[in-house]
Amino acid sequence: MAFAEIDVPNLPTAVACLPRTAARAGHLVGGERLVPEETAIVVPIFLAAFATLTISFWPYMIPFVLTTDEAAAPRSSLAFMFWGEGLFVPLMLLYTIISYRVFRGKVASTPEHSETA
What we know:
Layout: H1 11-29, H2 36-57, E1 60-62, E2 66-67, H3 68-71, H4 75-103
Antiparallel strand pairs: 1-2
């Protein structure tokens, strides 16, 4: 199926939402924060949209040209990366935890760096 064959019945609705979305994005870039009610609505919608996009292209890495099996590295490289990650990620997490414990309570906030200023 080519992209031109895809029917988009809700295109007018999506186009009508663009100004509101752009305005809201402008407010967020300006430093305004999302209220919890908006976050509870926006995050699931974004995740659902991203998941739908991801699933729609499966199993292609480059749509209709290159599949995930064709794009994958050799098994030996994947195994090396898997076991390397299995060793080093826990070590990095352990180092981070130890660092936070060592420096906990030793750093004070200054008026220039506080969130309320």
